[in-house]
UniProtKB/TrEMBL annotation:
It comes from the Bacteria. This is Phosphoribosylpyrophosphate synthetase.
Length: 113
C-alpha cells in the first residue's frame, strides 16, 4: 500500500492521468495552448479548452517550490496536461491563459481524485 505522499507524487499523478487518456503535453505560446508532442501540432484558444482537474505539489525541501499540474480537455477531444510553478515563479503566459479559461466559465470538473 502506498502512503499518501507517494500517491500524490507528480510522477504517479501523471501516470494516472495518462492512463485516463490525458496523453498530450501542452505549452502556451502567443496566447494559445499548443500540443508539444504531436507530429501534427494543434493550437487552441481559451474558449476551446476545459480544465478537467488540477493537482498542487509542494517542493520536498522548500514549501515555496510549488507547482500545479492541470488536466486539460480540448473541444476536439484532445486531452493532456500542462504544469506551471505556483506563485512568484509561475509562467505569466500560462497563468494568463488558464485564467482566461476559468473566466470563460470553463471551471473545474473534479473528476480525478
Amino acid at each position: 500500500m502506498q502512503d499518501k505522499e507517494e500517491e500524490r507524487s507528480l510522477i504517479n499523478v501523471e501516470k494516472k492521468l495518462s492512463a485516463d487518456g490525458f496523453t498530450q503535453d501542452f505549452d502556451v505560446r502567443a496566447g494559445r495552448l499548443e500540443t508539444i508532442n504531436n507530429e501534427s501540432k494543434r493550437s487552441y484558444a481559451p474558449e476551446e479548452v476545459t480544465i478537467v482537474d488540477f493537482y498542487r505539489f509542494e517542493g520536498e525541501s522548500d514549501p515555496d517550490d510549488m507547482s500545479i499540474l492541470y488536466a486539460i480537455e480540448c473541444v476536439d477531444g484532445v486531452r493532456g496536461t500542462i504544469s506551471n510553478a505556483y506563485g512568484t515563479y509561475a509562467d505569466a503566459d500560462t497563468d494568463a491563459f488558464l485564467q482566461k479559461v476559468e473566466d470563460l466559465g470553463k471551471n473545474l470538473k473534479k473528476a480525478h481524485k
